[in-house]
Every structure is written in structure tokens, then in C-alpha cells.
Amino acid sequence: MKIAILPGDGIGPEIMAEAVKVLQALGLRFEMETAPIGGAAYEAAGHPLPETTLRLAQQADAILFGAVGDWKYDKLERHLRPEQAILGLRKHLGLFANFRPAICHEQLVGASSLKPELVAGLDILIIRELTGDIYFGQPRGRRSAPDGAFAGAEEAFDTMRYTRPEIERIARVAFEAARKRGKKVTSVDKANVLETFQFWKDVVTEVHQDYPDVTLEHMYVDNAAMQLVKAPKNFDVLVTGNMFGDILSDEASMLTGSIGMLPSASLNDKGQGLYEPSHGSAPDIAGKGIANPLATILSAAMMLRFSLAQPAAAERIEAAVKQVLAQGLRTADIWSEGTTRVGTREMGDAVVKAL
Amino acid sequence: MKIAILPGDGIGPEIMAEAVKVLQALGLRFEMETAPIGGAAYEAAGHPLPETTLRLAQQADAILFGAVGDWKYDKLERHLRPEQAILGLRKHLGLFANFRPAICHEQLVGASSLKPELVAGLDILIIRELTGDIYFGQPRGRRSAPDGAFAGAEEAFDTMRYTRPEIERIARVAFEAARKRGKKVTSVDKANVLETFQFWKDVVTEVHQDYPDVTLEHMYVDNAAMQLVKAPKNFDVLVTGNMFGDILSDEASMLTGSIGMLPSASLNDKGQGLYEPSHGSAPDIAGKGIANPLATILSAAMMLRFSLAQPAAAERIEAAVKQVLAQGLRTADIWSEGTTRVGTREMGDAVVKAL
Ligand SMILES: CC(C)[C@H](C(=O)O)[C@@H](O)C(=O)O
Ligand SMILES: CC(C)[C@H](C(=O)O)[C@@H](O)C(=O)O
Predict the structure, then answer these.
(1) In a shared domain, residues A119 and A90
(2) Measured between CB atoms, which of A115, A195, A249 is closest to B157?
(3) Which of A110, B105, B123, B228 is the most buried (most CB within 10 A)?
(4) Residue B81: inside a domain, yes or no?
């Protein structure tokens, strides 16, 4: 079993070091190989996703990913910016199914912006399509406007698009996931305005016929953004496209108050997966030793379960994390009166000890 | 002075009746003419935006709009659905600048999903571009995928696009508005992925040179969806495109807990405007006499101020609304223990009395 370790930028290396420590402490036999990605790879090799890193990722059974991005690369040409690395990995490996759980950990209810009664026990699974939509649609670029009220003016444009098989496979992933949970899928679209999402809605409705035991509801994206704030517990599995999923999954994780705790998985149809924390590279706190490593550690647990067939090891990690929280240990992002503030490394050490 | 009154569907007629009553009670001289729109117009005339309604809207100095939409029209062809009426009005009248204030009324802090300290005193202005972007971009439709991993498969697609003059004018509107408020503009984009929004960011940055007294910050749309939840009071004026604005403005209004109180305005470059409540047609409670008419009444106030040059009358209405809230009167959506629950008509009557 081979794991590609891609720490990346900002707090990436710090949080990854703790996750690797936890993986090593399990006493299992797998190979871990580290490679640079994002800004770090640009510095080292002139490209955010060097050939060697891509090859490692393709050959590995699973990828553990830290985070990429830093303002200092904002002025680079688009194809050299750190974000291109994660977009490239998704596309090259066909990682079309992104799982973003938004869970409110019992002990962290107070860290949420929302009133406790709205988030206590929250457990939503957002499934975002990750290799299609306006993220990758061609054509795109700049040109002179071909028509419209400002024909001839300088213009930029992108193409939103989804094919039937792309919608079908992500819908199946959502229905299958819902079967193992609350048996309800909310498909989020903007069918009242977009051709792409009228088609999305039609195809999801068709696929639903194979899952009569699961309830399907349709919701417009603007309404979904509201309902997540108003009554997040009404959701079970939410499935949507790449662009809407980017926005709604971040909104939902922030609702929990503990985005620093939330793992994510991006899978392809071979079960290969990329696992990463839901939070970003946070360059403002990089190198300070205060970042929360738990989302990365929990991403490693997800990886053991979904790509490495080691569910028992996954459970051990999850139990260890629960235990350190119960001990009252907190990094700065989730700290509150009466708990003990610890740094990145201390948190990692505590998880290892709890194993 | 001529006002087009377009009640529309669902709770539209009920809430509009109260706003008209309030306008009449002002004792000012203006003509009001009512016309059907949305599903109501489809029933009456076979089209959601009949020629006569469009002409009335074009000739009027201002439009007071209720709401459109009902599930029962979901099966109609797209161009006959109620939503097309509002999209058509925006496009035909060139109503490119949508103002959506998200204000947390002092007496309604408790109605928010967010903790009181996060929303007390909240006063954000979201400015959404309303006549461009993927809402109107051509080409769009269905076809056989021309390329990509699923070339040949059935596909639906849309075009996102913005020209320089479209971005420039909405940026100016935002900077001008910020000058009269907190002097800060947050421009929301997705420049790390979309050509359209890299261009948006570049043009907004250029326009900013004419407004050195206003602070400009750029934020990715996924981050904006998070920051609205985490620390909404950090925003002053938020400006963004049509699609992102649709999502973020609804999220922001729901944060206040009193979307039933929030007016909105959509203006063109002649000062003509369409005024409507931020909430929708709520077909589930239509005809029950329980909808909150205050957002429509406050939209009428905005109309008096921005399109009819009657700022004193606008203030009278706003003061009257404050007074009925202070009296403890509440419709169901904002009701809480210790306040008096009233229906749509009673609320309208109370505002008239307070005038
Ligand atoms: C970095 C960026 C390209 C990326 C995205 O938009 O997908 C990020 O926001 C995410 O959600 O993983
Ligand atoms: C009804 C719909 C077309 C419309 C939009 O998406 O603009 C609505 O959501 C709005 O925000 O006014």
C-alpha cells in the first residue's frame, strides 16, 4: 500500500507532519512518499504540479493532501498558481466525487456562529461533483464581445456544462450514500435560470427511479444557501455541481464552528482517493505552530476507511480524536473558556498518545 | 408620477395590498396602475410578462413588485414560467444594479439563527449585478458534447460572460454607495478558477483608482459564503456578479433572521427602478393572511426615496414601521414569546395608523 503525502503551502507542512505521525503510530505496513505541490512545488521545480508529483499521485493507492495557496503567488500567470495543482490532480485522476461532511462535534457546539439548538447533532454530507461544470468547461478566455448590448467591448467568458454520464454517476454516489444514512437526498440546482441545471435536475430525477427507498428533493441554490442557515439539520445528503458545491460546502462547514476539524475525500471510480482537510492553507498563521491538525488527521482516517480497506484503524484514529477533545485539549481556532489551549504539535502528540 | 403595481403570485397580492394602502395613506399625488405578472399573467394572458405589463413598466417612473413563482408552473416550458417575467423586466429595462440591504432590526435580533452578538447592529449592503453573467449569456442549450471525456454524450451548457463596461458601471455604483457608508467595498469573485471573474477583479481594481477614499478588498466567493456566517459585521458594501450575488444576498438576508423585513431595489442608469421584497412568493402560505407585508412596505419607501424624489415620505414610512415593531406587533415569521402575533392586514393597518 502506497500513500502519496503532499503537504503543500501555508500550514500544510505543519498539519501534515502530525497526520503522518499518527499514521506511523498505527503500526500498519504502508509506504509513504512525500512530494512537493502548489507554491512549494513552483519554488522547487517551477510548476505547481510537477510531473514527478503527478506520477506519484497516479501510482499511489491514496493521496493525503495538506493545502495549497499563498497570496505571494497571486501575480503569477494562472497556469502557474498553486490552485492549479489541486485542479490538475482532480482532473488527471478523475476524482469526480467530493465528500464533505459537515458535522458539529458535540463538545464544540459553542464554537458555532449559530445558536446551539440549530447545530447540536448536525450531520450533513455534501457531495460535490468535482471534475466538470464551469471549472473545466471550454471554451473560456478573453475576446471582443460577439453580441449583446456591449458588442465589441472587451469581454471575459467561461462555459458551464454537464454531460448526462457525469450527472448520472454523481447522482448514484449520492443515492448510495443516502441509503447508508438518513435516506434523503437534496439535489441543488438553478433550473429556473440555467440550461445546465435544468438538465441536472432532469437526470437526477431519472436516476432516482433506481432508488425508490431514498427521498429526493430539489432545491434552488439561493434557497439552499438560506436553508443551511435557517435549519441545517433538515438536510441529510446534499448533492450539487462543482461551482455551487464549492460555495455551499464552505458555508456548511463554517456553520459547524469547527471547520478546523472537518476532513474531506475526493474519489474516482476506481476507489482511489485524495483526502484533505476542508480548511485552506491559512498563510496568515503558517509557521506559528498554532494550526489545528485534526482535520488532516481525520482525513487520514477517512483514507484508511475508503481507499486502504482499514476500517478498524480509521476507527482507532476517530476514537483518539474524540478522547483528546474530551480531555479538553483545543487549538486556538476551537478554544473556549475552560478548555486547554495547545499548539499543532501538542495536539498531534495527544492523538498519538490516545491511540 | 406613475407607479406600476405588479402583485404577481403566491403571497404577492396580499402583501402588495398593504403596501398600496400605505402609499395611499401618504396623501401624495401619484398614479398607480396595476398589471398582472408571473403565473397570474400566464393564467390571464398566456404569458408571464405580457406586452401590456411590459409597456406599463417601461412608462412608469417606478415599479413596485410583489413576487412571482409557484410550483404549479414547474412543468411549463422555460419561457412561460413565472421567473421569466422578472428576468425579462430586468433585461428590458436595463435594471443592472440590485441593492439588497441585509440589516438586522434591533428588536428582531433574537429571530436570527446567529448568536445575538454576531448580528446585533448588522448593516451590510449587497450590490448584485443584475443584467449580465451566466443569467443571460449566449450560447446556451442542449447538444451533443463537442469534446472532453464524454464527447458525444448528451450535454447542457451555459455561457458566463462579462464585458468591461458592465463591470465598470456596477463597480462605480458600489464605490459611490460605500462613500456614503462605511467606505469599504468587498468585491467577490472566483478569479482563481474563472476567466470571467479574473477579469472582474482586474476591472474593479482599475475603477478603484478613482475612489482612493474607499477601501477595496477582494474575496473568493466560497470564502465570502463562510465569512458571512463567521463575522458578517466585517462587511460594509459587498459587490459581485449576478450568479454569486443571487446566492450570497439570500444567505445574508437569512442571517438577519428577518428576511420578511428586507426591501430591495433594482435600478437602471436613468434612475428608474423596480422595488421588491427580498423574500419570494411563498406559495405554501399564500391566501392565509399571515405573510409579512413589511418588506414590501419598506420597498415602497425605498422607491419613494430613489425613484420618486420623496425622501420625507420614505422616512415617514420607515418611522411608522419602527413604531409598530416597538408596539410589539409581529407577523408569524418574526414572532417570539412576549410579542403580539398579527396577520398581514392587521400589520398593514397598524403601519397606516402609525403614519
Ligand atoms: C483552490 C480552489 C481552486 C478550490 C476550488 O474552488 O475547488 C477550493 O476552493 C476547494 O474548494 O477545494
Ligand atoms: C426567480 C429567480 C430567477 C431570481 C434570480 O435568480 O435572480 C430570484 O432568485 C432573485 O434573486 O430575484
Answers:
(1) no
(2) A195
(3) B228
(4) yes
Whether A53 contacts A33, CB under 8 Å: no
The residue segments making up the domain with residue A328 are 1-96+259-355
Alpha-carbon distance B79 to nearest alpha carbon in chain A (angstroms): 10
CA of B282 to the centre of ligand 1 (A): 34
Structural domain contains residue A106: no
Of A195, A225, A229, the CB nearest to B140: A195
Query: For residue B83, which residues of chain A lie inside 8 Å, CB to CB?
Result: 192-193
Residues A88 and A28 in one domain: yes
B246 CA from centroid of ligand 2 (Å) = 7
- Determine the average pLDDT of the residues in B112-141: 97
**Ligand lying nearest the CA atom of residue A242:** 1
The tens digit of pLDDT for each residue in B203-253 reads: 999 999 999 999 999 999 999 999 999 999 999 999 999 999 999 999 999
Residues whose CB is less than 8 angstroms from the CB of residue B154 and which lie 6 or more positions away in sequence, other chains included: A163, A164, A199, B142, B144, B145
What residues flank ligand 1, with Cβ below 6 Å? A 83, 86-87, 246; B 192-193, 222
Q: Are A91 and A251 in contact (CB under 8 A)?
A: no
Measure B249 CA to ligand 2 centroid, in angstroms: 11
* pLDDT at A283 (0 to 100): 94
Task: Report how many domains make up chain B.
Answer: 1
* Model confidence, pTM: 0.96
Q: What is the pLDDT of residue B271?
A: 85
- Give first-to-last CA distance, chain B, whole Å: 21
Contact flag A246-B118 (C-beta cutoff 8 Å): no
Task: Encode pLDDT of B267-291 as tens digits.
Answer: 999 989 999 999 999 999 999 999 9
What is the pLDDT at residue A75?
Answer: 87
C-alpha to C-alpha distances, A38 to A53, A79, A85, A243, B154, nearest whole angstrom = 10, 11, 6, 21, 35
**B121-125 contacts: CB < 8 A, separation 24 or more?**
B121/B233, B122/B232, B122/B233, B122/B255, B122/B256, B124/B232, B124/B235, B124/B236, B124/B237, B124/B238, B124/B252, B125/B99, B125/B100, B125/B101, B125/B177, B125/B181, B125/B236, B125/B237, B125/B238
From A229, A131, A124, A241, select the one nearest A181 (Cα to Cα).
A124
Domain CATH for A173: 3.40.718.10
- Same-domain status, A195 and A323: no
pLDDT of residue B82: 95
- Domain assignment present for residue B171? The answer is no
Residue B166 domain flag = no
Q: Per residue in B167-215, pLDDT tens? A: 999 999 999 999 999 999 999 999 999 999 999 999 999 999 999 999 9
Amino acid at residue number A41: A
Say what percent of chain B tops pLDDT 90: 95
Q: Cβ contacts (< 8 Å) between A225 and chain B: which residues?
A: 225, 247-248, 250-251, 254
Kindly indicate the confidence band of residue B81, based on its pLDDT and cuts at 50, 70 and 90.
very high
Is the pLDDT at B71 greater than 90, yes or no? no
Judge: B164–A154 Cβ closer than 8 Å, yes or no. yes
pLDDT > 90? residue B258: no
Query: Which parts of chain A sit beneath pLDDT 50?
Result: none
**Which of B86, B95, B279 for mutating ligand 2's site (highest number of atoms within 8 Å of CB)?**
B86
Mutating to test ligand 2, I would choose from A222, A223, A227, A244 the residue with most ligand atoms within 8 A of its C-beta, which is: A222
Percent of chain B whose predicted confidence (pLDDT) is above 70: 100
pLDDT of residue B106: 87
